[in-house]
Amino acid sequence: MREINLPPFAPNLIESTRSIGYSFEMALADIIDNSISNFAERVDVRFAVQENPYVAIIDNGIGMTPADLEAAMRYGSTSSLSKRSASDLGRFGLGLKMASMSQCRVLTVISKFRGTLSAAQWDLDRIHQTKSWSLLLPSDEEIKVLPFANALDEYESGTVVLWQKLDRMANSPAGFHREFNDRLDYADRHLRLVFHRFLSSRSQKDSFELYFNNRKLEPIDPFMRNNPATQPLEPETLFVGKQAIQVQPYIMPFANKLTAEERRTLNEFGDLNLKQGLYIYRNKRLIAWGKWFRLLRDSDLQRLTRVQVDLPNNLDDEWAIDVKKSSAQIPSGIKDALAKIVMTSVGKSERVYRYRGTRISKDSSDHVWNRIENRDKIQYLINRDLPQVQALYASLDDAQSKLMDSVISMVEDAFPYNSVYYDLAKDREPEEKTMSDQQVYDAAKQVISKMSRTRAEARQQLHNMRNIDVFQKYPNVLQMLQEEYDD
Question: What is the pTM of this model?
Answer without folding.
Answer: 0.73
